[in-house]
Amino acid sequence: xxxxxxxxxxxxxxxxxxxxxxxxxxxxxxxxxxxxxxxxxxxxxxxxxxxxxxxxxxxxxxxxxxxxxxxxxxxxxxxxxxxxxxxxxxxxxxxxxxxxxxxxxxxxxxxxxxxxxxxxxxxxxxxxxxxxxxxxxxxxxxxxxxxxxxxxxxxxxxxxxxxxxxxxxxxxxxxxxxxxxxxxxxxxxxxxxxxxxxxxxxxxxxxxxxxxxxxxxxxxxxxxxxxxxxxxxxxxxxxxxxxxxxxxxxxxxxxxxxxxxxxxxxxxxxxxxxxxxxxxxxxxxxxxxxxxxxxxxxxxxxxxxxxxxxxxxxxxxxxxxxxxxxxxx
Length: 329
Prior knowledge:
Blueprint: E1 4-9, H1 15-24, E2 28-34, E3 49-50, H2 53-58, E4 63-66, H3 73-82, E5 86-90, H4 97-110, E6 114-117, H5 124-134, E7 141-149, H6 161-177, E8 181-189, E9 199-206, E10 211-217, E11 224-231, E12 234-239, E13 244-250, H7 258-261, E14 268-273, H8 281-293, H9 303-322
Parallel strand pairs: 1-2, 1-4, 2-3, 4-5, 5-6, 7-10
Antiparallel strand pairs: 7-11, 8-9, 9-10, 11-12, 12-13, 13-14
């Protein structure tokens, strides 16, 4: 079988990983790369570094990855759709939900695979968590809580922490719960002297009644990537930095110490950390994209899903601008 001819536009800090994984994925062949700023990480190999998306298309590609700055996603993606090229756009799908809808519609109208690169969905801990949730391991789900914190990344200049990091948590939460967001409110701060926000706390409710909260920032010296799902039978904790998944069960052993029992809604049961296979999430993501193009069963993130996530992101930012707390002074 002939390999899919892949093009990559954007050779920055994310593009270099895309180039490596495309080369490592069966049935994909990296045949063209482009970046108007050149190839500072030296990932092109023997390929010429093309100046723009038009040159990339002219190389005769079947599919492409877009890893340019967010503000350029719409323009590049629309040109790829018009040329009949299956495309995966790094998250978020575009700089605005309106632009995201235009991109999604263009790929739908052309009958092309349009994917969004929410690589956290391919994290081994979250894949196993979703499988166990679907099997009913928690019973009814009450809450999904995420925490994504760490130092400021020098690679980011065009968006704030909400569009760069919180977008991951919004996407994975809706995916885990299999439900869209119904409402959301948030607060942000600007502590680092940049134009964009660097910290956000958001709470919301999904259409199926699950409540959610997200704590995300670029201001912590401690790096944390954690998703907690709490339900009637206990709680799962997924550490997506390490790929570990743990389960804390509600116990069945009665507590005889009255002082402690008075403060417990449930009792403490067994705690388990699962042994799971840990594959690189980006490799799994490319296999999903490839399989979708080849007509196989696939679990890629659609552009429609990517647009919904961006709608929630915009609602978070709008809430942060408009939400006024009651004055209790």
